[in-house]
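User: Here's a chain of 307 residues. Predict its fold as tokens.
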Amino acid sequence: MAALTSLSFSAVTQCLERKLTLSSTRFPASSLELFGFRTHFSYHYVGGVRASNSASKLVAQCMSSATDVPSVSETKLNFLKTYKRPIPSIYNTVLQELMVQQHLMRYKRSYRYDPVFALGFVTVYDKLMEGYPSDEDRDAIFQAYIKALKEDPEEYRIDARKLEEWARVQNPTSLVEFSSKDGEVEGILKDIAERAGGKGEFSYSRFFAVGLFRLLELANATEPTILDKLCAALNINKRSVDWDLDVYRNLLSKLVQAKELLKEYVDREKKKREERAEPQKANEAITKCLGQQLPGLQLWSSETISY
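Assistant: Prediction complete.
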């Protein structure tokens, strides 16, 4: 069984959970900081790479195996060079946090891209960006994000779509019995199982866990035992997957709450602007009315004086 390591976005959820306990009336008028997903631990530099305390050993290992590994700040800079438009804070702070985590995953010595990982990331990204004001910008951000990590965004999308289409025509039994069948996706899963079983490099991550969850979801495999069997077939630690999926579900719940509070804030501010505008409109109407009547009043006044 391959050693399992993961870089969490649990800090994202914990930070958001604390902030969501605040009253929505305290939402700062100048920014969206209430909905920030910033981590609560400190950062320091290890071998030129900015990393969290919890990931410093991993970064040191990564740096020892490759001299051309970019720093987190370089990855972020690459993203900003590609996508230059402002991103609302509720989305941007999560994206930045995920980018840090995925950078550390991407440049681990044992990292190797696989379609299940891609499906997991695409699922997380699409859930995060639901409700984004512009579909075009949402796609452009995705492109810039993956390119900043020096990977192919089209490959992510194509592989995610391929696995989704495959899972939709599976049932719980055929899903876990992939090893006895031939096919492109079955071959991908067999390769993962071999590498995770110790016959090659495999790096487990929470995006991978979300990818498994998405496969089960599309195959309508709702029985808990199906996940047990799928993890066993892939040589993946079921306990790690369970824990990571709990974190993912909690994150989605907090995102929904954050977006609801954001909508309430926007609606409240819109109402305030409308209320402030009403007296001004009334004054303008009175002024306009007086302006229309003034010539008649002046004429009547002059006639009275003449008489």
